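// run 5 | inverse folding | seed 20
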């Protein structure tokens, strides 16, 4: 395969000159056609000719920019009205562009007379960003063009959204302070940032992992709250008190003159185990959290 024919990456969806969003699950171009077969030989049924009698071109694009995508489906008052029934889609067409973000891909696609079909799939995901699926139908332009391949100029190409900058240490401090407040504990005395120190009972909070995406929006970080004590009931109480705190949305924590916003803090899993330490049995509980920052 030639390196010039290698295609990968999301694209920008632009309708009527307005940027709708970057594709999350990709954009799909669907071409369908109907034929009329002429078969004069009834014995062997050999097709002499096959005539194209219909063409249908449609585009499906899943985007995370839910508000701008939903605006294409609703009227100026944010409503979907039965008044759209009986209206012609052909009278509501506009130019649809699919422009790749991949800077080595110089080919985009233009649909000069596309219309938004009032049909969608809006996914309210529990622990991930919402997305909305848009459907477009392409009609012929006055010159008969339904779809065309275009050379992408650098003035047309948009910049792929980037992750917001964060200071991981500050995020970990903020999460530790937030959980300390929920449990009524004191940071660096009963609860510790970066996990539990060796030989010290109490609660530890640490960031463990960040999930990356090639179409970034908010940052997705995994964290773990660990509780260790000789008293098993105390461990249960701490862990299950925290499970009742989450999910939490839009929490803002001020730490070292900086405000850290947690868009969501959701719970994922609880684990319990025991360990031997200095001749004693210690009980440990872990609560795994998913943070959107």
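// decoded
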């Amino acid at each position: 395969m030639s390196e010039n024919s290698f295609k990968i990456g999301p694209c920008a969806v632009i309708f009527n000159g307005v940027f709708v969003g970057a594709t999350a699950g990709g954009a799909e171009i669907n071409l369908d056609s109907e034929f009329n077969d002429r078969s004069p030989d009834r014995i062997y049924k050999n097709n002499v000719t096959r005539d194209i009698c219909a063409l249908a071109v449609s585009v499906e694009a899943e985007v995370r920019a839910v508000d701008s995508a939903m605006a294409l489906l609703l009227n100026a008052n944010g409503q979907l009205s039965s008044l759209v029934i009986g209206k012609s889609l052909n009278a509501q067409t506009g130019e649809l562009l699919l422009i790749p973000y991949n800077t080595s891909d110089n080919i985009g696609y233009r649909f000069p007379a596309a219309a938004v079909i009032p049909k969608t799939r809006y996914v309210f995901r529990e622990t991930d960003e919402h997305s909305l699926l848009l459907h477009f139908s392409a009609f012929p332009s006055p010159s008969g063009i339904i779809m065309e391949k275009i050379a992408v100029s650098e003035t047309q190409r948009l910049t792929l959204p980037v992750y917001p900058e964060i200071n991981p240490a500050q995020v970990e401090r903020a999460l530790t302070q937030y959980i300390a407040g929920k449990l009524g504990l004191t940071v660096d005395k009963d609860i510790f940032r970066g996990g539990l120190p060796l030989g010290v009972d109490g609660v530890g909070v640490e960031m463990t992992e960040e999930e990356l995406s090639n179409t970034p929006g908010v940052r997705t970080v995994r964290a773990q709250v660990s509780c260790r004590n000789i008293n098993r009931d105390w461990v249960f109480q701490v862990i299950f008190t925290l499970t009742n705190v989450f999910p939490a949305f839009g929490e803002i924590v001020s730490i070292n003159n900086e405000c850290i916003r947690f868009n969501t803090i959701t719970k994922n899993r609880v684990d319990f185990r025991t360990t031997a330490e200095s001749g004693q049995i210690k009980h440990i509980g872990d609560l795994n959290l998913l943070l959107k920052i």
